[in-house]
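Hi L., both proteins are below.
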Amino acid sequence: IYDWITEGATLREVARKLQENGIKSNLKNDFSATSVLSIVRNPIYKGIWKFQDEEYNGDAIVSEAIWEKANYTISNRSLRPTAKQVLHYNPLRGLLKCSCGKSMTIVPVNGNYIFRCSTKKDKYDKVICNNGSINSNLILIAVWKCVKLVVSLSEYINRSGEEITNRQNEIEDINSTINKKNKEIEQITQEQENLVDSLAVVKDTGLRKQIETKYRENQCNIYRLNEEIKRVGERKIGLLQLIEKIKHQADEKIIDGLSCEQKRNIYLRELENVSFYSNKRKRGFLVVKFKNGYERIMLLRSRKLPDIFLLPSFFVMDRENCKVEIQTNKRRKTAGIGSKLRIYDSMELEKHFNLTDWDIAKDLKKVK
């Protein structure tokens, strides 16, 4: 298992290999990706046994180097290099759902990365979900743009003020600690001077050895205190840099500079789920559902330059047919269309509506 992981096999691939070789768990069950992960993560296989919060050394099945390499491989697998060598992190992990209800995961295809249903194929490589795949970057860009337009990020920005206050309080504590340690150093330094003066007059050999021993102990304490000051000083520098970063991000113009991890925190706080409904090849509808029940639908087209159309709020998703429809007669008339209720697939939308009015990816198509 460890060799397969370090050679690049995914958890699912390892589980499939075990199944193909007829290897079962102790409970005579097939291995799953989750059970394989629990094995790889378990330190007992590198000889570290834990009992009642204490660690003991025991027999190892794999070397610590192999164990660490396998765990490092798994931990960094969510960061996928694209064709342009850009690390691809998945902030929608666990939130993005297929039309069948299962999660969608990132998989590589011909040098690119796509979101595909996690149950697209079974262990025998048979197709069991007909929902199409979609370019992963297109999904990630669309969701972020939708969230920015729909959700007020003022709360997120205002919270930066609280975070700055907390960091400043921590800096004050560090300053207090540094002052205390500097006073200790001053006291020990004064004591060292007194010890040196004593050595100049004391003739007794035994007493001189005691003074010299005390002097060396003091020197060690001074070194220790200076190292502690250096360590908390580095922490202080890091906090000051963090405060500057937070202040910089508090500007809404810089909000796109948030890391994928920070965006994920916003998603986890605001979103119930995101669902993709494949409609035609390399296109489909993306439904973003917020925790307050509000939904917005986007039409996505995967081309050289991404097409992302945020449909008006009076469109609702016909999940059974993977199409969209108008919600009320009143709003249909307001939109300037007929009174007959219709549902539209992606191609029909292009025929009946001017999609450019709903394009939220225009900034990605500007020529530099």
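That was the first. Here is the second:
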Amino acid sequence: MGTGMDVVAILGNHELWDGNPETGSQNSISDVMRKYVQACGFTNYRPLLENALWMKYQGMSPVLLNEKAILEASDAELADLCRQSVRIVLGVVGFSGCNLTFNADNGIYRGTVSREEDIARSARFRAVYEKVLRCAGEMPVIVLTHNPMRDWSDRVCYNPNWIYVNGHTHRNAIVREDDGTTVLSDNQIGYESKPLQFKYFTTRGRYDPFADLQDGIYQIAPEQYRAFNQARGVFIQYKDTGPVQMVKRAGAYMFFREQNGKLYILSGGHIKRAEHDIEYYFSNLPAYKAAVTAAFGPFNRALETISKEIKAFGGRGSIHGCIVDIDFCNHVYLDPMSGKLTPYYALDIYEKYVFDDIRALLEASVAQPYMIEWLHQEKVTMLDRYDAAMEKNLLPVLSSHVSEDSMALATVPELVLDTSMYEPSRIMRSIQYIFDQDVVRVWNDAVIEAYVAGTIGGPLKELSC
């Protein structure tokens, strides 16, 4: 991560192979780090971090605290050091102690790191993370890790005051939420040879770069389009260099580009032929937003309630399309046609195992142990959390939708969906950008027509929250 003359670095799992991709290193992690420090000339001004805290001060030398110094400092001492700094970075590999399916046993560190050390290293970082969180939770700390948080922590929520930067997964993504939660993993290079480039980010959390603009039709640069998506928490791959046409009206946005004299609607990095001129979309954007909100609002609120209940027993609760994630492998699908819930287990989009209810899913899942014994004195699984939440009546919706004759939660108009599982979920994801990012990515005149005719937006069956 580079800002001006500041360079802060961490190692990844490939660096720990120490130049031997077949077997890994015979050296310890500390020895591998020393090699990189000597080869790259890392110093306190340009540190290589491993379970360490780097703090920069105005007109003063930066301070680098290692794991031992962090844990031995009193809370008051550490809080005071953080409070006076102008930039704080907490850096570490992170390791994969909490990941039961992709960890040292799978050879991601080759022979350099055993599963026992993998678990222990994550536990050590978790102790440092909790200490810094306690002392600097209100400050804008940058948490720079190779592994994502789910690999090294059992925490469900990020600290909305902090910025989390990670890689490792080879799947680019951005999270920017209204409460300030920011997770950036959008500059991963992967295995293919690609030009390397630094990206910048703000510490403001989610924001709107065009908030001060009046309603209208604007021409913006492609860099502004990419920056808008990043600011709203959306990862896109958009490489076109031509100007982008932006429509802003009624708190909603649409983006277009012209190609060979034809107008296309931008959907992230993809394009779809526009059926009307840009003035049509400007004129009808308020009506379209109202129609979509009326048609899909009940379904979207149903998903949000499911997400809230999943989070209540320790699950992720992340929503994408018609699917709400419990964890990496376990999910709940809300059928937009019938309003029925389907818990299922899947490692990819091709092979799925469906269960009668969430309890049966968690009982059978290989990803069942969510809290690991080495992190807590008592071993607690996701299933244990689910049962505890049920006893406290925290899951009224999930508990009442576990049988074939259960009531439907909410449905969506059939005019925009087909019947396969992932296709309506993909369509719903495109529509959800209106709710989540105020961006219209898909346009269907039939939605406005049905709304005007009163055939959608009426008293759809909706769950009570």
